[in-house]
């Protein structure tokens, strides 16, 4: 395979230049006549397993004839079809290669097969004043006689924080600790979790799942159930009822927020999905289109904040940019006039 380097480190940059040569290069490959005839502009070639390669079409028809950059040209349907290949073959060696050393370390503590009940609960503290949002999860493992065999609580990475995400994290953490072939019943007080479980776990995989928030966690649950041959049932318990085990799981989750040892696990350590999309080493666990749109909006706002008319008045932190969207209130013609006036787009005497 020929080695190509990105022109820029920007997340939305898709242009690449052929590598002039680096430590990955295998000189013997560059001397082959077939490669020299087809790829006469590249200088760096290396070996790669065919099962690890993914083909993307490019906008340039003849990129090998001259030392020119290429631009990836893919559609959402094409990218989805590539993901489906990985999801359809969960037992392939390529899917297991995605497991990180941290994930392997988390799998060392395996619960015995005598575990038949799992109480899970999550806790979420939203952002308030100068405090950032916080998520935590906990689970209790019980046998048929009601004895607590093990328990765990963890302060979670604040990535896409929400109350539902903390509940799903608790289930993923509990399933990750089970032995192969376990048959358990998960008790939870989150009715939304049970409802979404019926749509995302108990049905065949659908590409529509990739558009949902927390889809990586749902895919991780599916992956754990398949790989470990688990039989999982869900049972609803009353919220803040008289179930002592649910109250104990709730207490463990809340106490994890004030733990002196914060979470040392990165967000990727909890992802067991066979295909991951990341941005700045963080998993994209939401609709990819919405995520890219938010990145574009943030960059547009940053460019807007850097205009000379604002920087001359002082630091950009002096302006209430969060309330800027309020200009859309009222008649459309009125706020369009205000925007044009702000950007000096009106044909006034000062601009003519």
State the gist of this model.
With 352 residues, the protein is α+β, with helices and mostly antiparallel strands. It has helices at residues 27-30, 33-38, 76-88, 93-96, 101-106, 163-176, 191-200, 215-227, 244-255, 288-305, 308-311, 332-342, and strands at residues 4-6, 15-18, 70-71, 117-125, 134-142, 148-156, 183-188, 231-236, 278-279, 282-283. Helices cover 33% and strands 15% of the residues.
What top-tier CATH class of the largest domain fits best?
Answer: Alpha Beta
Proper CATH architecture of the largest domain: 2-Layer Sandwich
- Gross morphology is flat
- Cα distance, first to last residue? 57 Å
Order of helices and strands: EEHHEHHHEEEHEHHEHEEHHH
Find the count of extended strands (DSSP E, 2+ residues): 10
Structural class: alpha+beta
How many helix segments? 12
CATH fold description of the largest domain: Nucleotidyltransferase, domain 5
């Amino acid at each position: 395979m020929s080695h190509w380097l990105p022109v820029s480190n920007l997340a939305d940059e898709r242009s690449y230049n052929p590598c002039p040569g680096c430590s990955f290069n295998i000189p013997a490959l560059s001397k082959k006549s077939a490669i020299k005839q087809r790829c006469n502009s590249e200088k760096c070639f290396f070996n790669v397993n065919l099962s690890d390669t993914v083909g993307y079409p490019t906008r340039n028809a003849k990129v090998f004839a001259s030392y020119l950059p290429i631009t990836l040209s893919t559609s959402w349907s094409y990218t989805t079809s590539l993901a489906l290949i990985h999801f359809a073959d969960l037992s392939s060696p390529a899917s297991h290669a995605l497991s990180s050393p941290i994930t392997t370390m988390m799998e060392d503590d395996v619960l015995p097969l005598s575990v038949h009940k799992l109480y899970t609960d999550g806790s979420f503290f939203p952002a308030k004043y100068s405090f950032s949002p916080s998520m935590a999860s906990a689970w209790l493992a019980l046998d048929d006689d009601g004895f607590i065999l093990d328990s765990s609580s963890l302060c979670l990475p604040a990535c896409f924080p929400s109350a539902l995400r903390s509940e799903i994290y608790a289930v993923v953490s509990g399933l990750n600790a089970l032995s192969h072939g376990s048959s358990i019943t998960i008790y939870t007080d989150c009715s939304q979790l049970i409802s979404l479980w019926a749509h995302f776990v108990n049905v065949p995989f659908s590409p529509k799942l990739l558009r949902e928030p927390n889809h990586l966690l749902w895919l991780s649950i599916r992956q754990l159930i398949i790989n470990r041959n688990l039989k999982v049932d869900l049972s609803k318990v009353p919220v803040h009822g008289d179930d002592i085990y649910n109250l104990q799981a709730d207490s463990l989750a809340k106490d994890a927020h004030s733990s002196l040892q914060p979470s040392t696990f990165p967000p990727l350590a909890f992802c067991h999905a066979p295909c991951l999309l990341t941005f700045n080493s963080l998993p994209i666990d939401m609709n990819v289109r919405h995520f890219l749109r938010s990145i574009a909006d943030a960059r547009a706002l940053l460019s807007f904040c850097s205009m000379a008319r604002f920087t001359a008045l002082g630091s950009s932190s002096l302006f209430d940019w969060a309330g800027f969207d309020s200009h859309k209130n009222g008649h459309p013609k009125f706020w369009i006039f205000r925007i044009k006036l702000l950007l000096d787009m009106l044909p006034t005497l000062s601009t003519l």
